[in-house]
Amino acid sequence: MYRTHHCNELRASAIGTLVKLAGWVHVRRDHGGVVFIDLRDREGLTQVVFRPEENATATEVAHTLRHEDVVQVEGKVAPRIPGTENPKLATGDIEILPDQLRILNRADVLPFPLDSDPSNEDLRLSYRYFDLRRPQIARNLRIRHRITKATRDFLDAEGFVEIETPILSKSTPEGARDFLVPSRLAPGKFYALPQAPQQYKQLLMVGGIEKYFQIAKCFRDEDLRADRQPEFTQIDIEASFVEPEDIFKLVEGMLAAIFRASRGVEIQTPFPRMTWHDAMDLFGSDKPDRRFAMPLVDLADTFASSSFKMFRGALDAGGAVKAIKAKQFALVTTGQMEELTTMAKLYGAKGLAFIKVENGKWQSPLVKFFTEEEKAALTSKLQMEEGDLVLFAADKWEVVCEVLGRLRLRISEFQQLTAGSDVHDFLWVTDFPLMAFDAAENKWNAVHHPFTRPKAKDVPLIEAGEYGKARAEAYDVVLNGVEIGGGSIRIHEPDLQAKMFAALGVSEEDQQTMFGHILRAFRLGAPPHGGIAMGLDRMVMLICGEQSIREVMAFPKNNRGVDLMSQSPTEVDARQLRDLALKLAEKKQD
Fold first, then answer.
1. Are 442 and 491 members of one domain?
2. What's residue 590's pLDDT?
3. 150 with 241, same domain?
4. Which of 78, 151, 269, 466 has CB atoms 3.0–4.6 Å from 461's, for a disulfide?
């Protein structure tokens, strides 16, 4: 037996007990004769004291211990000398007086100290197995475990069945680039790693399963960022004979169970709801962060007959004029203003018009173009006060919303409007557009995926070719400005699915090639069905208060998609390529 207790278990009630502990040397304090070590395992710390007069042999060995050596100690639990208790430790009233010390393994020179957070993330990921010993990472992984357990327990109680779907599947257009896997048994052909179990879970509904879920691994070959990895995990849910209200109620109950298990907090349900159009119009985002006030204010009425060409021209062209007001931000620095201007241009604006209210006056090159009535209307609508900064956008509605929405979030970061916030602002965003036009490809694409159901009253719009006006029976759940899940009611009728494919420009031949299996299934009595996929990594990140999903995954890739620990991806030898009937293209010479 390596241990009788873990290192956060012993209390004053155990004084006099003979115990065994095992773990890592967290800290060694050598006082010449007496040696103190803090012994650590995943549960916490216990102080062990070696005194030469009590055990000379063990004390001599203790002098040689280094950080992260793995040891076992056996001895009696004793009270700490009065005045040396450590109230910061749960075990701070006791210490171990060892009779035996056994070194189980020695540690080499450490790549970085565990009691600090190294700024070099690549170094941390290169030694991820060592980095996992840091209490913060260990805490995050245990919270992740509680979240997945709460999810399984809740969905099981609701009658859902956990079913695994294939990892080697078929490449189909689902919005992101597939990871391809060559087949040795079928040379020249490829599997794809699933971007999501979308078609399989719908086929399970055709199969009469009715209530399915899976903690599913998904893969997308796309550019990485703090909340995105090439492989990630979804809480994937699908159910038959459901409408959006059923999904909303189910997910709210599941999230309440998750937060109760992981944070010990009760969240308020039902969640408020907002249409996609209203979210964009008011916040400039389809995943609005409502924890701070800074709405987009519509100024169409104010400038409908204005002589200011920039605003009037946008309105006459069917566009929009909107503004946001940053309270007490008139003293914005030159660097911050340059960044906001660059950001505005990046998202489609031609420039960035502004007004600063300083010393009772409006500081702006715009002011000379405004009438007194327009100034009064701005003051009233925006409630402008001393120290405020107002930013304007005038262009197409979509551009105006996007630009001001991005600026709104960046200003909130400048002003730290949500710093230290413990608010859990959940929101359902509904009624997304069904399709969006891609000017580069000169075609319509599905906003979610081609199996998303249009709203019943908007089906005639599809038949009339007015694709941009059609709305989807789709919904996202948002937490504090981050989308944590999205789903829809699906198309289950072959005829309606054919209309959707036709609108997306998918020929009948391509429909059969890419989706023949699911189209045939729909002709064998497919029930009405729908579901949702929740981003597990992203949700855990928010619950743990982290800024990157890499902090809540055991072995993540870095922002270049590289596993620095195992040095993958890597080259393979010629024999492996030959078995797969593959040949690499020669590198171009510079």
1. yes
2. 58
3. yes
4. 466
Are 146 and 73 members of one domain? no
Tens of pLDDT along 20-33?
Answer: 999 999 999 998 89
Q: What is the pLDDT of residue 315?
A: 96
Range of 69's domain? 12-105
| Helical residues (DSSP H) of 319-396, grouped into ranges | 334-346, 372-382
CA–CA separation, 23 vs 68, rounded Å?
Answer: 9
Q: Which two tokens stand for residue 287?
A: 């995943």
Encoded amino acid at 303, one letter: F
Is residue 300 in some structural domain?
A: yes
- What parts of the chain have a pLDDT lower than 50? none
Strands 426-430 and 273-275: parallel
Q: Is residue 588 part of a domain?
A: no
Same domain, 399 and 503: no
User: 507 is written with which tokens?
Assistant: 């020929």
* Alpha helical stretches, state H, 487-589: 494-503, 508-522, 536-544, 574-579
Give me the CATH number covering residue 405: 3.30.1360.30
Using DSSP, state whether 165 is helix, strand or coil: coil
Please name the residues in contact with 230: beta carbons below 8 A apart, sequence gap of 6 or more.
179, 219, 220, 221, 222, 224, 557, 561
522: its two tokens: 């729909």
Q: What is each CA distance from 226 to 502, 548, 550, 558, in whole angstroms?
A: 37, 5, 7, 9
pLDDT of residue 471: 97
* Cα–Cα distance, 262 to 250 (Å, whole number): 18
Neighbours of 386 (CB within 10 A): 11
- 143 and 270 belong to one structural domain: yes
Query: Tokens for 540?
Result: 């855990």
Residue 24 lies in a domain: yes
Q: Are residues 322 and 341 in the same domain?
A: yes
- Closest by alpha carbon to 455, among 441, 428, 434? 434
Residue 52 is given by DSSP the state T
Report the number of distinct structural domains present in the chain. Answer: 3
On the 0-12 / 13-18 / 19+ scale of CB atoms within 10 A, 92 is middle
The tokens describing 171, both together, are 């490449």
The two tokens of residue 66 are 């280094």
Tokens of 354: 């502004």
Do 83 and 144 lie in one domain? The reply is no
* 413 and 436 housed in the same domain: no
pLDDT in the model for residue 296: 98
CA distances from 190 to 183, 185, 187, 297, 320 (A): 5, 10, 8, 51, 48
| Phi, psi for 556 (deg, rounded to 5) | -80, 165
Cα Rg of the chain (Å, integer): 30
Structure tokens at 204: 């399970």
Indicate the SS3 state at residue 44: strand
SS (H, E, C) 441-460: CCEEEECCCCCECECHHHHH
- Predicted structure pTM score: 0.93
- CA 535, 537, 538, 540 dihedral sign is positive
4 found inside a domain: no
Q: Which of 87, 105, 123 is the last residue before a domain boundary?
A: 105
44: left (phi over 0), alpha (psi -120 to 50) or beta: left
Considering 105, 126, 146, which residue would you say is the last residue of a domain?
A: 105
